Amino acid sequence: MKNIHGNIAILGSGNIGLSLAYGLVKADYQDAASILLTRRNVSHLTEQAQMGYQVSANNPEAVKNASIVILAVLPQQLDGLLHEIQPVIDASKHLVISVISGVSCKDIKAKLGHDVQVVRVMPNTAISIGQSMTCIASDNASTEQVALVQSMFETVGSVVVINEDLMTSATALCACGIAFFLRAIRAASQGGVEIGFHADIALKMAVQTAKGAADLLLQHHSHPEQEIDKVTSPKGCTIAGLNEMEHQGFSSSLIKGIKLSAVKAGELYIESK
């Protein structure tokens, strides 16, 4: 049985929690039997139980039987969960990982105990296909524990370690950013319909073009402008289109949207209280 890090309890097994569980098993990082999944209505975890995961509606019991505790509930459910598990949290045994938007390590330690090691994690919805851009931060976890969390989330995508004061910004750029890029792809496909393609073909063309653009940057380790220069020629059609988009505020609107999302991300936990 592969559980060299001990049992992992995922409290609140929604999309993010389940995607991580699947990724850990698929990467042979952890076996299903050493992952405990909780949900208020445990009948929603019937399929996971059949796959070999431990499932339960009892959060304190799951915590007692684990060494890594992942908090994956909604922000408005967090305070109740922390109150529920606080009596069984052991700072000498447990590493606490939070994937909850807008909640600081300090917020969690205030409820669980200031000596508990807490790592804050922000994945995005591409975690469901193993392509998340995940940011992690901590104000008190050891270098070894941060490295452990990094290795866990590398099973479901790319990971960067950042300062915690940048986590709300990371939420806007990476988590909200999924929607921003999807909206850009939708707009491109609508443009394709305008110039003569059927909607399904236009969408396929826009999606693959966007994927190709991203892969150029990832594989060439280049800057966007380097790749843009390769496709723009003097008096050409590409530069004409780019300049028209900029005249209409393409870059500035995207930047302003990211900035506003960062402000709102910092208010999520406060508004839920």
UniProtKB/TrEMBL annotation:
Q: Which Gene Ontology cellular-component terms appear in the entry?
A: cytoplasm
- Give start and end of each Pyrroline-5-carboxylate reductase catalytic N-terminal domain: 8-101
- Give the EC number: 1.5.1.2
Family assignment?
A: Belongs to the pyrroline-5-carboxylate reductase family.
Q: Which residues form the Pyrroline-5-carboxylate reductase dimerisation domain?
A: 164-268
**Which GO terms of the molecular function aspect are on file?**
pyrroline-5-carboxylate reductase activity
What pathway or pathways are given for this protein in its record? Amino-acid biosynthesis; L-proline biosynthesis; L-proline from L-glutamate 5-semialdehyde: step 1/1
What does this gene product do? Catalyzes the reduction of 1-pyrroline-5-carboxylate (PCA) to L-proline.
> Corresponding gene?
proC
For this protein, the record's SUPFAM superfamilies field holds:
6-phosphogluconate dehydrogenase C-terminal domain-like, NAD(P)-binding Rossmann-fold domains
Catalytic activity, reaction form: L-proline + NADP(+) = (S)-1-pyrroline-5-carboxylate + NADPH + 2 H(+); L-proline + NAD(+) = (S)-1-pyrroline-5-carboxylate + NADH + 2 H(+)
Q: What is this protein called?
A: Pyrroline-5-carboxylate reductase
Q: Pfam family example for this protein?
A: P5CR_dimer
User: Which organism's genome codes for this protein?
Assistant: Arcticibacter svalbardensis MN12-7
Q: Return the HAMAP family for the record.
A: P5C_reductase (MF_01925)
Q: What is the lineage of its organism?
A: Bacteria, Pseudomonadati, Bacteroidota, Sphingobacteriia, Sphingobacteriales
Q: Where in the cell is it found?
A: Cytoplasm
